[in-house]
Amino acid sequence: MKVLVTGGAGFVGTNTVIALTKRGYDVIVADSLTRRGSEVNLRYLQETIPNLDFRQSEIEDMASLIFKEKPELVFHFAAQVAVTSSVASPLRDFKINAEGSFLVARAAADIDAPVIYTSTNKVFGDNVNKLPIVEQETRYDFDGELQQRGIDEKVSIDANHHTPYGISKLVGEMYVREFGGIANRCSCMYGPNQFGIVDQGWLSHIAFNKLRNRPTTIYGDGKQVRDILHVNDVTRLLLSQADMLITDRSRIAGEAFNVGGGFQNTISLLELCSLWGIEPEFEEWRPADQKVFYCDTSKAKSVFDWTPEVDMQQGLAELYEWTASTVAAV
Prior knowledge:
Elements: E1 2-6, H1 11-22, E2 26-31, H2 38-48, E3 53-56, H3 62-69, E4 73-76, H4 83-88, H5 90-110, E5 115-120, E6 133-135, E7 140-142, H6 164-178, E8 182-186, E9 188-190, H7 202-211, E10 217-219, E11 225-230, H8 231-247, E12 256-259, E13 266-268, H9 269-275, E14 281-283, E15 292-293, H10 298-304, H11 312-326
Parallel strand pairs: 1-2, 1-4, 2-3, 4-5, 5-8, 8-12, 9-11, 10-14, 11-15
Antiparallel strand pairs: 6-7, 11-13
Helix pairs in contact: 1-2, 1-8, 3-5, 5-6, 7-11
């Protein structure tokens, strides 16, 4: 079965390509190679997969690639991923995440190929910051009924502030779902083949800073909490979604799923710095930063019998070890 992975040399893309290849899929990998680390991931893929079918392509090229190759399934991971970049260059952010995703979704629909899309928890906008929270010694947490349960898919996406990134990813998500694909509203993912930046992949970013003896800057007080999800758990879910789209598409077409580690895999910035022996520097809060976000993933459990399996402490140790082995390459 032929599948296309856009953003296939990115973090989630690389790990998904490996998992798909092991399952026997005929995988086309498309990536612009503009993000730092993507060239390292491409070399890894080429060393791991003989005769890798790689196409260096911009987002504007993806629709024509879909029409030419006619994949039976599309994993759409190509994106502009940084909130700060979306504020500085909102038009380019829109072109990649909104218009680009529309073109992918429409082209895939024209050849009857479903799309699996990586969306973001930022689609909920400032609604998350309006929820009641409590302040604890090293972290914030939700208060009331959301405590230890988290945000589910029913929380409104209609907010008066999203950031340009949140808007563009939401537009992309809605078009993918409108054309019969599915969207994964992802929390913080981590694992091997990740080259994080301050705005995305923060666990990896902090690991690289530590190993390079660079300062780690925290915006705010460091008590911000996120649920984190190891990429092995991500790819396991993606493969289950692919199986269902192939065998029973109508059951999930048009759906959105919250994808994260859940409360049991939450960590604050202060807690991570303590774990890795980091003395951070502090600056002012950034606009629209969420003090608390973690997912209620019960919908994914109900539909796919999926729950996170990788232990957080084990996963973080693995990320740090992988980063240490790779730091000289970038």
